[in-house]
């Protein structure tokens, strides 16, 4: 990847980073990289002959990402405020009964799963996806702007 960073690439990275991973961006090249907690742990340990070869091979790159000032940690899933974005989406739903039903799904156990289930049931998946993507794109834009990283939307 190169600069300027494509917002869609950032969106994909933010949406699909696993919970046990941290996503970084190289502010000079625009490269987006994810580092798992396991990889990070290996990078901070003494390695011995029992360490798997794939771990040993990846350690220099992982250390570069973790220790270089060229890489910045991108917003995490927690920074995306998914519950807030879901509530904002509910407010865009025109039918009051559906809006209220969706808002109720946001309180209680398995809120995200219930919300997604009923978004699909009420055939709102496309509108929800567009709303969520726009909200996350704005988080990426704000991040790139704050850190003076060139980006383009298309």
Summarize the structure.
The protein is mainly alpha-helical and 154 residues long. It is 56% helix and 12% strand.
What report would you give on this structure?
The protein has 154 residues and is mainly alpha-helical. 56% of the residues lie in helices and 12% in strands. It is built from 7 helices and 5 strands. The strands form 2 sheets. It has a 3-stranded antiparallel β-sheet with strand order 3-2-4, with helices on both faces. Helix 2 (37-43) crosses helix 3 and helix 4 (82-92) crosses helix 7 (125-146). The longest helix has 22 residues, at 125-146. The two termini are 14 Å apart.
How many angstroms does the end-to-end distance come to? 14 Å
Please tally the helical runs, counting DSSP H or I stretches of 4 or more residues.
7
H/E element string? EHEEHHEHHHHE
Low-confidence stretches: none
Shape: globular
Number of strands: 5
What does the average pLDDT come to?
90
Query: Roughly how much helix do the residues carry, as a percent range?
Result: 55-70%
What profile does the largest beta sheet have? 3 strands, antiparallel
Helix/strand-derived class? mainly alpha
Spatial strand order of the main sheet: 3-2-4
User: What integer value in Å does the Rg equal?
Assistant: 19 Å
Strand content: 5-15%
